[in-house]
Task: structure prediction
Amino acid sequence: MSSHDSICSIGPIGSAEDKPQPSRAHARAGRRARRAAALLLAVCGWGAGAASAAAPAAEPSAAALAAARATIQAQAAKDPVGASLEPLLAGEFALQAGKLNEAAGSYLQAARAASDPVLAERATTIALVARQDAVAADALALWRKLGGQGSVYAAAEATLSLRRGDERAALRQLNALMASEPDTGWRQALGVLTAGSKDPKQTARMVEKIVAGGRLPPRNLMAWVAFGGLSQRLDQPKLTDRIVEEVVKRFPGEPRVALLRVSQMRDEGKSEDAAKLLATLVPLADGDNNLRALIAEQYEGLNDFQNVAAVLARGPQDDQTYALRASYLARADDKPTLTALYDELSASATKPDPARRLLLGQLAEYLERYDEALGWYRGVPGGPQRELARLRAANMLHKLQRADEAYGALRAIQSDASAEDDTRRDAYILEANLRAEDNNARGENEAFARGLAAFPDEPEILYARALSWERRDDVARAEADFRRILVAEPDSVAALNALGYTLADRTNRYQEALELIERARAAEPDNAAIVDSYGWVLYRLGRVKEAEVELRRALTMQKDAEIAAHLAELLWETGRRDEARKYFEQGRKIDAENRSLQRALKKYGL
Result:
């Protein structure tokens, strides 16, 4: 979002020598008042010539501001668009400041002044994200009056009913939404239940009522599987059993139904039973790429990477499939099978095909044959693969303990005017990462500095350096780099969330962190990582009940070790240690090396 100056620049007012210097805060307040006056004059219809004709030396008096506002109010009926400008700007600035409560109210005021359904929708959306249910109700009523309809309106209406605790109305609205759009309405309903309800328990009740009422599309398998998956994520085994039984009746012999059962077995800790059932499904997937991918996903959930690769090997093969097979074989540490795949592809690599040579270089990397990988990468003749191959070749030189050559190769890329800008940028980031591996903090810093000299304020470099500072516990410098990104890209959701989370996790500036995360939430309210950050900062602020709701919601949206660790820590600190251990264990299964999880486990001696 642009600054106030870019909206209405009115130039200097008076001379600094004519009066004592005010404080910085007072100066900012004075500038805001002057700019507000200019905006008010513009709204009233006075042109730039009239504004410049007035003597600018004196600051506008309170009486002048009051008169301008009175003029706006008098002209509101004649010029509703003009009357909506001031609250619209106020709403936008509040949104940019992470003050969602103020933003929702201002957008509603603007919508009323302009009788604009788009602004009414915006006000409703922001109010729902901010959990300002009274404002959301007023905005929704205005939206309805202005002709609001369709699935987005229906989803907002159902969300508000859930927030009010009116589950009967919400059920009626969700059923109507699914009936009005049989092919897609269930997805909207699922989104409302996942992100819009008061808490996971309410979500579970609503899923049960929808299933019991028979309102899911009767012949839409994906709808039934999706609702069954949501029930699993909500830890509702009885409800999941009921859905599975219903799906088996409706879709007999459908292998995707068996996959739902496999997922349920995994959640119940019955890994052997799940593996046996999966094995019966594998032959059915030979002619179905989508089913094969779903089976592979379930094997991955069992940490059976060898079978993931084996399932992927059964269908049509291309370089992407080969690469996936290789990555899973590497994770399984299945060197013999990986070697066989490498030998098979090497024998057919007589032509200088860029994609195949790049793939062979990656396979050789997995096998830790770094000399061979270097040869394949250097043999990539051209095309977009050549850019990546040059970076990977430098990495191989470093693996071969030829650090000087590695850094020389990266310097050559950095200074190559014919290389793509992204490749040159990534060469600086890779150099910094390799310097970090060498425990050379000075070299790492210098690589980042040279990268920023070549690409001033480049967000990717700043973001990488910010994470590096945070890893080294230099929170102040990490914050500075995140803020540099936000100066250039004020709406960068990644930077807003990263900075907000860093402040919440590593400092006591919780209110500031909340405002940053609120800005990210306004942009992507259904992003699990942002919901997790929001729950974590609420926990830090002592708003434990609200925090628990959000953290459980985030974990429902995405099974993630860090989210599980956050929820476990909250439960531990509130005396529910058995449940906390359950989530710590869940985090271990997802990613035992996660830093947040490791810190929490160390904190509690687990």
